[in-house]
């Protein structure tokens, strides 16, 4: 949206078909018989505040992210939520070589 803040919306579909799987070891074929085919679909919102200087190799800055989703399981017609929180911070130890970083995640 502006500066270091991003708000995004999206959707996804996940389909799992264990009966289509062929196993190298024929003795493992029974595993797919115990599972059911499943399709889930839903929408999510991603809320991000990111002041890191580099996304893949940060040396300073903060990342705060909250992802919230609502999904529907077509197998048993139930709804479920998926939630994810992430916080991390990076501090350069200059003039000494090194970096102090921490991260906390919850799902």
For this entry, give a set of tags:
five-stranded antiparallel β-sheet; 1 helix; 57% strand; 107 residues; mainly beta
Q: How would you describe this protein?
A:
The chain has 107 residues and is mostly beta strands. The chain contains 1 helix and 5 strands, in the order βαββββ. A 5-stranded antiparallel beta sheet has the order 1-2-3-4-5, with no helix packed on it. InterPro entries: Omp85-like_dom.
- Report the end-to-end length measured between terminal Cα atoms: 25 Å
Strand order of the largest sheet: 1-2-3-4-5
| Multimer state | single chain
Discrete helix count? 1
Overall shape: it is elongated
The largest pleated sheet is described as: 5 strands, antiparallel
SSE ordering: EHEEEE
Alpha carbon gyration radius: 21 Å
Strand residue content: over 45%
Amount of helix: under 10%
Q: What is the number of E strands? A: 5
Report the mean per-residue pLDDT as an integer: 89
Low-confidence blocks of residues: none
Would you tell me the structural class of the helices and strands? mainly beta
Pfam families: Omp85_2
Domain OMP85-like membrane spanning beta-barrel: 4-91
Protein name: OMP85-like membrane spanning beta-barrel domain-containing protein
């Amino acid at each position: 949206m502006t500066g270091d803040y991003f708000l995004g919306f999206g959707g996804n579909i996940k389909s799992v078909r264990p009966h289509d799987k062929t196993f190298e070891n024929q003795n493992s074929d029974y595993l797919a018989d115990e599972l059911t085919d499943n399709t889930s679909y839903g929408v999510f919102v991603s809320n991000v505040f990111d002041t890191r200087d580099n996304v893949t190799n940060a040396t300073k800055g903060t990342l705060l992210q909250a992802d919230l989703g609502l999904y529907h399981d077509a197998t048993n017609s139930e709804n479920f939520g998926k939630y994810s929180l992430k916080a991390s911070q990076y501090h350069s130890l200059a003039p000494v070589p090194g970096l102090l970083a921490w991260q906390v995640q919850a799902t």
